[in-house]
Amino acid sequence: MSSYRKVTFAISSPDEFLVLYSIVSGRFIHGGQILNGLAGPVTMAAPPLISATWFPASQRTTATSLGILSGNIGFSLSFVIGNVSKLLCV
Length: 90
Fold this sequence. Notes:
Elements: H1 3-10, H2 14-54, H3 60-89
Helix pairs in contact: 2-3
């Protein structure tokens, strides 16, 4: 059976389409969670390392908190900038 026939057979009914969609989307969700889990320790370890290297002991807490906060603010701004650019491009 050719791949074209397999695809048309897989989406021939709504129930079969939902099963196919759930299998494919589940794999993407797990892949995204794995990538996020791999990136988490790197992004969370950078601010304490930088503050320990560059700042004296009395300023490390403030430097670490500002470093972590700037990453969260940047993540939040990505949603705002994306929506604003979408509105401006229309």
